[in-house]
Amino acid sequence: MEFSEKLKILRTQANLTQNELADKLYISRQAVSNYEQGRGYPSMDTLVLMCKLFNTSLDELLSSGVKKRFMRQVVIIVSIMFVSLILSVACVYLATIKNLSTLLFLCGGIGIHIIPFMCLLVYLLFQYNPPKKANKFLGYRTKRAMSNQLMWDYSQAYFSTLYAKVASVLFCMNILYSIVSLFVGFTTCLILLCLVLCIQAISLLIPIFFVEKNLKKFVK
Nearest Cα to 215, choosing from 128, 163, 134, 153? Predict the structure, then answer.
């Protein structure tokens, strides 16, 4: 069943009009109408409010229609990753022609793809095979995230969505680094490589900040 049909059924079962549902979700009636007609999808925050209102799980709401949007995100990220990889290989070849350190370019070309590729794997795992229940081994595990099932489901979905965005940005950064590295000297290239790796490492912490910020808001 598509998300649009599911939402309309849940609203009808709750004896709510589109205006009443919009008020409870703090959105416009037009937004509700678009959701029910399949012309748009709600944000993660709105989905959480829907789950609370209709007493259903986030996983059920994220099935079918909404996951199609996530599949488009996967296609975009993989496409950017492919371009980044091809460009890195080309830069290693060109660096060899310019008699620059092939080993540096080779290690750099591989190293800068490890973190964004891990972000992509996290996204795929948490979106299409998320941990169903809170546990101590797999998933986004913080005190707030493990407070109840709804918070747990939301944390896994939102955290992985942010990681998808991080992966896209980092792959684009890799493309930029590969191009710039061809026009700078060996020392500058090495400094840029270290800078890119540091930025990538720090970027892993950014999604945690936003997830915890939203969880804190929901708790309140």
Answer: 153
Per-residue pLDDT of 96-153, as tens digits, reads 666 666 777 777 778 888 999 999 888 888 877 778 888 878 888 888 888 888 788 8
pLDDT in tens, 148-167: 887 888 888 889 889 989 99
- Cβ atoms of 3 and 65 within 8 Å: the answer is yes
Token reading at 34: 């678009």
Residues 100, 185: Cα–Cα separation, whole Å: 9
**Burial category of 177 from C-beta neighbours within 10 Å (exposed 0-12, middle 13-18, buried 19 and up):** buried
Q: Is the dihedral of CA 53, 59, 62, 64 positive or negative?
A: negative
DSSP 82-122: HHHHHHHHHHHHHHHHTT--HHHHHHHHHHHHHHHHHHHHH
Residue 127 CB partners (closer than 8 Å, separation 6+):
67, 70, 157, 160, 161
Q: How many Cα atoms sit within 13 Å of 104 on the Cβ side? A: 19
Cβ proximity of 59 and 130 under 8 Å: yes
